[in-house]
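Subject: Interface between my chains keeps coming out wrong

I've been trying for a while to get a sensible model of this assembly. When I model each chain on its own everything looks fine, but I need the whole thing in one frame so I can look at the contacts. Pasting all components below, labels as-is. Any help appreciated, I'm running out of ideas.
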Amino acid sequence: VKITQRDLEQDGFSKNPFFQAIIAEVPEQHRSKEGHCKVGYALYFFAYSSWKGRSVYMEDLYVMSEYRGKGIGKALMSKIAQLGLAAGCKQLNFAVPNWNKPSVDFSLRQGCWNVTSDLGYHCMRCEGPALESLARGEAKH
Amino acid sequence: MEFRVRAATREDCRDISRMIRELAVYEKMPDGMKISHEELERDGFSQNPFFHCLVAEVPPQHRTKEGYTLVGYALYFYTYSTWEGRSLYMEDFYVMPEFRGKGIGKALISNVARIGKEHQCVRLNFSVLSWNTPAINFYLNKGAQDLTTSDGWHCFRFDREALDKLAEEAVKQ
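Reply #2:
Try treating it as a single job with all components included. I did that and got this:
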């Protein structure tokens, strides 16, 4: 992780935020042994499909290990679906590494499908020096 | 060949819509596109746009036989990485077949990267079909990584019906 708490505050809570987030909270009597009541989160932003229109992308979904299996992850994901639909979205997308079997199984159980396996889309990324070169227009053709 | 890359305007949406359909045909999913150019106008050109778009334009003397002067586009939006921060996602990137090999694609993607940089974005993400060798080579030549092959990342999706069902189960607070 390269970003700081300050980056999150600036990028998520200014006039034109880059993301939004929801938190799962338990009452005091169920706090973790370190005293945390915030036990899970989901971070998302609005995206676009040139075929279907408005969509929502779930960047992160996490529940502390000792609080799993209680419906918290599903509640977080459902809330994002609700917020997305309220904003006119027709799709919810997210990514999971295919070796993460618990996450893959959880996801499929909720009713989604695997775009990479079924259609063959690969996730690509340009960053660091390659992105710098591209921005300067120097990339070799 | 002379061309220019510029930000799309609301009036370009009919052409963008046409090219989205052409790209869908190329991707072997000709019926994939379900939205209208009016929806593109509403979602891309209002106060809080869901996307941004660059178009590649040729002068009238190079127009296509149907009379089109918009010959390519790149549609993108801002995203966020909880590890690295501000990022960009390039949803579509397309140049009409008869205008390829002239530097238009490179100009489009370079401009997307440049705009990202101006907004302090540190990543440009996009996806490509595994059989689309020309596109994969184009991207790999520019230093892109294939995260599906290298790290096993898979894209998952809830479509409308499944999304409705999931939303119904949201915990009432």
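Reply #3:
Confirming on my end. The helical segments of chain A are 5-12, 72-86, 101-109, 115-119, 128-136.
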